[in-house]
Amino acid sequence: MFHLDDRLLLIIAGSIAGICSGLAAVTLRLSLEFVLEWLHPFRHYWWAFVLPGIGAMLSSLYLDRIAREGAGHGVPEVIYAVSRYGGLLRFRSSYSRLISSLLTIGSGGSAGPEAPVVMSGSSIGSNIAKLLGLNERQRITLVGCGTAGAIASIFNAPIAGLVFSIEVILGEWKFVNIIPIAIAAVAGAEISNAIIPEQVIFNHQLFQIGFPDIMASIGLAVSTAIISVLFTKALRQTGRFAKKSSFPLWVRAVVGGCTVGAIGMFMPVVLAEGYHFIQSMISGTFSMGIFITLVAVFAKIFATAMTLGWGGSGGIFAPCLVIGSLTGILFHKILFVLFPSAGVASEGAYALLGMTGIISGVMQAPLTGIFLIAEITGGYETMLPLIVVSSISSTMSHYIEPASFYFKELIERGQFLRPGTDARILSDLNVSELIDPGFIKVSENMVFREFIEIIKTSSQNFFPVIEDRTDDYKGVIQINAIRKFTLDPGMYDMIFLNQIMDTEVITASLENDLQEVLDMMDINRMDSIPVVENDRFIGMISKTRILDLYRRELIMQTSVR
């Protein structure tokens, strides 16, 4: 029955993925609350700065020595798995990032629990698909279901879970994906509500939004775009600098964690996920002045870069929310000083707008920014300025930094290929699969009359020419290029093949990927290209054979395995 109705299968399997990923998210959330509360009394001691260092060290050792996975936040790994491996993820990824992020964030590291639960939920969806023997397309959909369930559960925001999963992880709005992912998001949110009953994560009073706020939103959007780019660059540059150091990973993690702990001794807003500081900013009880708020913005950026870049584990969602709130508060304070009678909304409203701007700018996912902030705060009255800030911030960030934080490294390594695209399907084809080795080879010293006899019994349009003594490839003879000789029988005994062969024809090797081979053929207007390795002719690759295998691969990716 499942195989007869693909939609029913995906809805049921997606619901299971949403429930399981929701449970994983709730487990991490409750565990974090317990650890943070347990360690809170110790933060008043002078040695408390070492706590984030110890947590980051344990996290890095666990990932490196036990789980055998790299440090970081995990979302690019999920996108890479969807992009290149049809959503295949290891089962241990369903719990490894939960444990490592609990150690990092629970000890005070500046990171968020969202990316680890995305990794966990995606792995759960992938392994459910593996258990059911589903094809690649169905498996990718279940990865999206796991992601949506995890985000919906950790934030109690099903629409944001749906939008993030499709906008960031899958990158394609297909009807066949939307329904199961939406149901998975609802399942994840309901699991969260059943275990931790609440309406919204951050409560606020009703904001009064007017036309001055719409105009001010443009300036705030520009500010959040600039901060978003600085945050992205800080994360990347800090990580690169850490990797160049000669210290072992666990030592780097200690250095990064202790640095964050030292900053947190004077500015607690940089520690852990910082949700209670966000609540105070939205509620209007945040008491920092302009200068301290400005310092706090850059302190949180630096602390997050040190946590994630130097070996800690966690996500950037929560830091983006804290940085966005601080940016919104800072903008409101400056606006009030410059225009005291402007009649704009309260600081809390601008904290919401700032969160949207940073989320949209860093991830370059405007819809995620809009719906996430609206859902987790219930601030739907701010929807119009939310749209303004989100759209302008993401657009400006994309103009300055064309790839988002999640995609930048994948694009640089040539590993970012969206499912269903030609590039994605072609990446699964190997040059060795495409080679036709059954070509007749001819000697460079062969007389043209002998070659004419070979042509009569062969359907080849290309003949590789080799050296008699070494068997090395020397060139190729194209039938169309020698037509004038074939029409003149008087030349048959006067010409040797080394006189008419083409030695300028470009060749491919087994080291080339398929995209490079296609580019060579297009640039040189060739329908076939010889493959030569170590001066030996291996075979020919033709566009006809590429198309044939492309069709087979396309069918394979959409059939049940």
UniProtKB/TrEMBL annotation:
Keywords of this entry: CBS domain, Chloride, Chloride channel, Ion channel, Ion transport, Membrane, Transmembrane, Transmembrane helix, Transport
Pfam families, alphabetized: CBS, Voltage_CLC
Record carries keyword Membrane: yes
Cell location: Membrane
Signal peptide feature range: none
Entries under SUPFAM superfamilies matching the protein: CBS-domain pair (SSF54631), Clc chloride channel (SSF81340)
Superkingdom of origin organism: Bacteria
Molecular function terms, GO-annotated: chloride channel activity
Gene Ontology CC, one term: chloride channel complex
Protein name as catalogued: Chloride channel protein, CIC family
Protein source organism: Desulfobacula phenolica
